[in-house]
Design goal:
- One of its GO terms (cellular component) is plasma membrane.
- It comes from Limimaricola hongkongensis DSM 17492.
- The chain is mainly alpha-helical.
- It has 5 domains: about 60 residues, no CATH class; about 350 residues, Na+/H+ antiporter like fold (Up-down Bundle), CATH 1.20.1530; about 55 residues; about 160 residues, no CATH class; about 140 residues, Jelly Rolls.
- About 75% of the residues lie in helices and about 5% in strands.
- It contains 34 helices and 8 strands.
- A hairpin with a 2-residue loop joins strand 4 and strand 5.
Length: about 850
């Protein structure tokens, strides 16, 4: 191919990509549909000019277009890793983990169900063997939900729903391609109807080994990028190489799924890189990948659409009947998941409820596209696949893709409108009317002040003021005539606005580089959770999410187990340090929300709602402060180091702004400005590193602060601190079972526990103890003790505790008080407390 013609075709493709997006917005069609249309028109136009007698001037260009070296490997090895890797970098994994059940249901279960439903329906027609039918089922089972996601975003649909669809787009390609590789192997080996059990037994190896390969490659890549922290472009270059190396290593060296390896590498980089790379490097890397994925997605659609005439070559009317069978089977399988399995998961509390209109939009928005065409092309290229299988695979996959793009893609937005998803809810509509009225009042005041400052003529100001006043009066009338908003709804809307303001504050702290990228992502995830739970649960949902953001869940329990039992401290130290930073960030943000309530929310929702929101934020700030105080008590030096680090980072940002202002004012030149910025970056790289947290609790300090040990002399306290054993606990952890024998007594250094026995529930906090009654009164019915929050216990064995009771009247008094508190007879409680002294 002539290099000039090739360059011209490449430039033309970029031009089509640039024009496609605004054209799609104007025609209100999905971007992918426009690109596919461009590709089909290009292929048909090239065929027409090559065969027409009108002119021969365009023959070289037409031949070049039709002879483009488009092979399935180009899609699978060049474009697909780029698309998948970018999606993994852009998703919010912490929030996606909350919805892992519906995501896996749509991304894996739905793909498997669609594969076997389509394959079974085709097999019943008798045109192809079972393995070939299942191969076609795997090819058409992968969806491209980007169109429906973009529409949901434009409609301000719930973020959780958009996130579920994004998670499906991340994993369904991987699942479908893994199944495709499995069935393709049987078809190429000429095994028409093998046993499905052994065939599917290979599936876990494809997934597990592929994911492990991606994890290993990404860990090596992160280490290499962290060594090159001063070279941002080098880090981006390494990230570009990573998905391709992972794909090739998995496919060629391990014999696993390259797609799964790419997903595993991207997810690992998403989790590990923010803590190892600077925020600026991580942001630049994601921006580069956004651009690469945009181009890759556009090119894959354009090039795949060029293949459509070739794949449909030789189609007969009966073949389109098979396309109809596949279409009905695929839609039926997806509908069964959406209307059958998802509601069951919602009833079981495993999945957020998805309303019927949204399920209809998801069903009709399951467009197929370039991946389906690329997999079909791989089948048609293989000479080891029988001729009839190759021909029917190309025709069925292409016909089904065209149906989804032309019929579903064109009618998707009208369907959304017919379902009423474009309309605001009554509550949002009432709020919109009030917001517009309040905003226009503020605008009128600001415009009047600006007109006076600029000395505009009265005639101009009067004419514009009259027009604006009419608009303002109309807005006020609409607000007064509209449906009134109840106080409970106003509180809900105010809390949603507060969570949104909290999110904006976190983003500003990140832009100012006052907090790390990892910390910003975690804080943003918590703010998103606040917004979503408040929308569904109102004030109680907000409180529930606020409490959950302070504590820690299953990961902390597992990390505490590793630390307590296996003496592996790394995971617990990292999670505890993350919690330290998150609480510090939340404390900073909550201090600024009172001003937002007074300046913004009060004007819209009134004084009563504002006062209630002040009270809710105040209580939440107290909870954050208490949790932070508990950590400060355990690690006093670490809290101080984190606060010093925050001050240093803030000072560097202010210094950078000052230099920028001096540069803009012409007081310093560009050379000096660049030198000063280089010095700031050097100091910032030092300030970015988070101090290492030592989990060794300062037991001597804690013993000194315990009221129970106040009557002990210094020597006894020192020996006691050495005898105590530290135990880290997480919320929900069972600390003592009903049937477990008592061997020690636990003193609560931080956190809280709940004791349940004989229908009675007692809660204990810092400075109190438990286990002493079971130790001193073995025949007493034992209690179950459960941790209410993350904390630290100091445990003392039986012999040392008995010696402690003999030495300490305060401990003996505490034992008697605890026995009385649990309902024990006063004489017995007194004897129990004095038993060791007898």
């Amino acid at each position: 191919m002539d290099i000039i013609i090739a360059t011209a075709i490449l430039a033309a493709f970029f031009l089509l990509i640039g024009l496609g997006e605004p054209l799609a917005a104007r025609l209100r069609l999905p971007f992918n549909v426009i690109l596919a249309g461009f590709g089909v028109l290009a292929g048909l136009g090239a065929t027409f000019f090559l065969n027409t007698q009108l002119t021969d001037a365009l023959n070289p260009v037409a031949e070049a277009i039709l002879n483009l070296p488009i092979r399935s490997n180009v899609f699978l090895y060049v474009f697909l890793p780029t698309l998948l890797f970018q999606v993994t970098l852009g998703v919010n994994l912490r929030r996606m983990i909350d919805d892992w059940v519906p995501i896996l249901t749509l991304a894996v279960v739905a793909v498997v169900v669609a594969t076997f439903t389509v394959g079974g329906a085709l097999y019943l027609t008798g045109v192809l063997p079972l393995m070939a039918c299942l191969l076609i089922g795997a090819i058409v089972s992968t969806t491209d939900p980007s169109a429906v996601v973009s529409i949901f975003r434009n409609l301000a649909a719930p973020r959780r729903l958009s996130r579920i669809i994004e998670g499906e787009s991340l994993l369904n390609d991987a699942a479908a391609i893994a199944l495709f590789g499995l069935f393709m192997g049987f078809v190429m080996r000429g095994v028409p109807n093998p046993e499905l059990g052994p065939a599917l037994a290979q599936f876990p190896w494809l997934l597990g080994a592929g994911g492990l390969t991606g994890w290993v490659m990404a860990q090596a890549g992160v280490r290499l990028m962290s060594w090159l922290e001063r070279f941002a472009l080098a880090q981006v270059s390494i990230s570009v190489a990573l998905p391709y190396l992972a794909y090739i290593a998995a496919e060629r060296l391990v014999g696993a799924s390259g797609v799964i390896a790419v997903v595993g590498a991207g997810l690992t980089l998403n989790l590990a890189a923010p803590g190892r790379l600077s925020p600026l490097s991580w942001t630049n890397m994601r921006e580069v990948w956004d651009l690469l994925a945009h181009w890759a997605g556009a090119f894959i659609f354009l090039l795949a659409a060029l293949l459509i005439p070739r794949l449909l070559d030789g189609a007969r009317p009966v073949d389109f009947a098979l396309v109809a069978v596949v279409t009905l089977a695929a839609l039926g399988a997806r509908a069964a998941i959406l209307w059958g399995l998802l509601p069951l998961l919602s009833l079981a509390g495993l999945s957020p409820p998805v309303e019927r209109p949204y399920r209809a939009a998801i069903l009709w928005g399951g467009l197929r596209g370039a991946i389906t065409l690329a997999l079909a092309l791989a089948v048609t290229e293989s000479l080891r696949v029988p001729e009839d299988v190759r021909r029917l695979t190309g025709i069925i996959a292409t016909g089904f893709t065209l149906f989804t793009l032309i019929v579903q893609g064109v009618t998707l937005r009208p369907l959304i409108k017919w379902l009423g998803l474009e309309k605001l809810s009554p509550l949002d509509a009432a709020l919109a009317r009030q917001v517009v009225a309040v905003a226009l009042q503020s605008v009128r005041e600001a415009v009047a002040e600006a007109a006076e400052n600029y000395g505009l003529t009265r005639e101009t100001v009067r004419s514009e003021a009259k027009s604006f006043a009419a608009r303002l009066d109309d807005a006020v009338a609409r607000a007064e005539e509209g449906e009134a908003i109840s106080d409970s709804d106003r509180i809900t809307l105010g809390l949603i606005a507060l969570a949104g303001a909290e999110r904006d504050h976190v983003l500003q702290l990140f832009r100012d580089r006052a907090i790390s990228n990892r910390q910003a992502e975690q804080a943003l995830a918590e703010a998103d959770r606040l917004i979503e739970t408040t929308r569904t649960g109102g004030r109680m949902g907000y409180r529930r999410a606020a409490r959950a953001s302070i504590g820690q869940g299953g990961r902390t329990r597992f990390a505490a187990f590793l630390h307590n039992r296996l003496h592996v401290s790394g995971p617990l130290a990292r999670l505890t340090a993350d919690r330290f930073e998150l609480l510090l960030t939340q404390g900073l943000v909550l201090r600024d929300l009172d001003g937002f309530i007074d300046s913004r929310i009060r004007r819209i929702h009134g004084r009563r709602v504002a006062e209630l929101l002040h009270d809710l934020i105040g209580r939440r700030a107290e909870q954050v402060a208490q949790a932070l105080d508990g950590l400060r008590l355990q690690y006093p030096g670490y809290a101080e180091e984190l606060e010093r680090r925050f001050i240093r980072r803030t000072a560097l940002r202010i210094e950078e702004r000052e230099y920028a202002a001096l540069r803009e004012d012409g007081l310093i030149g560009p050379e000096l400005h660049a030198t000063l910025l280089a010095q700031i970056e050097t100091r910032r790289s030092e300030a970015e590193a988070r101090p290492k947290l030592d989990l060794a609790v300062q037991k001597a300090v804690l013993v000194q602060q315990f009221p129970l040990f106040s009557d002990l002399d210094a020597g006894v306290r020192q020996r006691l601190s050495k005898a105590l054993v530290t135990r880290f606990v997480a919320a929900g952890e069972v600390l003592q079972g009903r049937d477990a024998p008592a061997r020690s007594v636990s003193f609560i250094a931080s956190g809280a526990v709940e004791i349940e026995t004989a229908g009675q529930t007692v809660r204990l906090g810092r400075g109190e103890m438990f286990g002493q009654l079971a130790l001193l009164s073995p025949r007493r019915k034992r209690a179950e003790v459960r941790a209410l929050s993350h904390g630290v216990l100091l445990e003392l064995d039986e012999a040392r505790f008995l010696r402690l009771m003999r030495r300490s009247p305060a401990v003996r008094e505490a034992v008697r008080d605890s026995a009385l508190k649990r309902g024990m007879d006063p004489e017995r409680a007194a004897a129990l407390g004095g038993k060791p002294a007898a």
